[in-house]
Amino acid sequence: MASVRFNHVFKKFGDFTALNNLDITVEDKEFLVLVGPSGCGKTTALRCLAGLEDVTEGDIFIGENRVNDTPPKDRDIAMVFQSYALYPHMTVFDNMAFGLKLRGVKKEEINRRVNEAAGILGLEQLLKRRPRELSGGQRQRVAVGRAIVREPKVFLFDEPLSNLDAKLRVQTRAQISKLHQSLQTTFIYVTHDQTEAMTMASRIAVMNKGVLQQLDTPQALYDRPDNLFVAGFIGSPAMNFFDAKIRKADKEAFVEMNGFSMKIPANKAEKYMAYDGKPVIFGIRPEDIHNPEFLPSNINAAEVEAKVDIIELMGNEINLNLVSGTHNYVARVDPRTRFTIGEKVKLVFNMDNMHIFDPSLDSENPVA
Ligand code: ATP
Q: Which GO terms describe its molecular function (predicted)?
């Protein structure tokens, strides 16, 4: 069993709380991604798990074992860093073999493991080279290889793709996903990049300011963000937010924004009636705003008028920066319509995918 559990973990550096009651269970063989902005505590969480930092309060379990007092070398985990941390004077083979030699693993066993890892990672032809003779992507694979040969219970990755260019990042992302499938081991992966998190994770833990915001599958985080922070962090371009008010009229409910009013679909109205007259934040993703000619069928549509401010042609879609009254927002629309800057257009919000957030609750708490 290589499940991992952070049980109400606090980590303080002096007065500063880097991890605030972190409570996460990572299932055996799961690919969990910790994501959040710079400084939110992701690396600190990994370092506590690896035993490179002591926790201030709470427990960490690997499988059934509480490891708070277990030295790093006995935790049976391997970590891949952003910097790769390869030894420059050693060959690829020796870089991968080094940790095993230190542990007194027999030579034949070292050869077997290094060759097997080199095979998995396509490094067979590079085993005699030194790190300076490798590309960034190859170095990164050596760093992963060094972790694989340890045959650990848990793999930790700390932003391993940050030093790669955009194209290589996409390729390596896919390789790491495949590696997870073939090794069938628990992976915990830290990144600040929500796309990386969405594409690789079986579940994602979103963190902000040392506090876990939501732990869920990528799709659930996208469809049902618990709070404003998660809603704004997951999705690109980010969700649009509007200051709004809820107005109840008989059995119907409307969301009213400075300058326009939209009917809330019947199946959602009841949930938000309690907010009648109160300020809320209305959220809509750019991809849920459509040009009327290319509307998905069977949606609860609400029309808005807007002025086109900026046009970003993306090939398979267009990102429009729009202005309606005092609101600025982004729509991701079908590229078959031609838009011009300054043009007044009619667009449609898909109200089935709208979100309402309660601004009286801060971002660390759930919303309505
Ligand atoms: P990044 O994506 O930038 O690496 P992160 O989410 O991994 O960020 P951490 O490295 O975990 O963030 O740091 C969390 C907070 O704890 C930061 O504010 C950081 O300055 C602080 N911190 C980390 N290590 C120490 C330390 N040894 N002493 C004091 N403060 C620290």
A: ABC-type transporter activity; ATP binding; ATP hydrolysis activity
The alpha carbon of 41 and the centre of ligand 1 are apart by a number of angstroms equal to 6
Tell me: the pLDDT tens digits for 112-158?
Answer: 999 999 988 889 999 999 999 998 889 989 999 999 999 899 999 99
| pTM, entire model | 0.91
Q: What angle do CA 138, 39, 15 make, to 5 degrees?
A: 135
Q: Using the 8-state DSSP alphabet, how is residue 24 labeled? A: E
Between the CA of 145 and the centroid of ligand 1 the distance, in Å, is 27
Sequence-distant (≥ 6) Cβ neighbours of residue 298 within 8 angstroms: none
- Indicate whether residue 15 lines ligand 1 (CB < 6 A): no
The two three-digit tokens of residue 37, written as one number: 């902005």
C-alpha to C-alpha distances, 318 to 194, 225, 285, 301, 330, nearest whole angstrom? 21, 25, 14, 20, 10
Q: Running DSSP on this structure, what letter comes out for residue 235?
A: S
Q: Is 337 left (phi over 0), alpha (psi -120 to 50) or beta?
A: beta
From 13, 209, 233, the mutation candidate for ligand 1 (largest count of ligand atoms within 8 A of CB) is: 13
Low-confidence ranges of the chain (pLDDT < 70): 1, 362-368
250: which residues sit within 8 A by CB, 6+ positions away? none
Return phi, psi of residue 17, to 5°.
-95, 110
Cα(18) to centroid(ligand 1), Å: 7
Element (DSSP H or E) covering residue 74: none
Nearest-5° Cα angle at 209, 205 to 210: 60
| Ligand 1 pocket test, candidate residues 9, 10, 16, 158, most atoms within 8 A of CB | 16
Q: How much is the pLDDT for 83? A: 78
The confidence score (pLDDT) of residue 1 equals 64
State residue 128's pLDDT score: 95
42 lines ligand 1 (CB under 6 A): yes
Alpha carbon of 315 to ligand 1 centroid (Å): 38
The Å distance, Cα 211 to ligand 1 centre, comes to 13
**Ligand 1: centre distance to CA 356 (Å):** 32
This model of the complex carries an ipTM of 0.96
46 lines ligand 1 (CB under 6 A): no
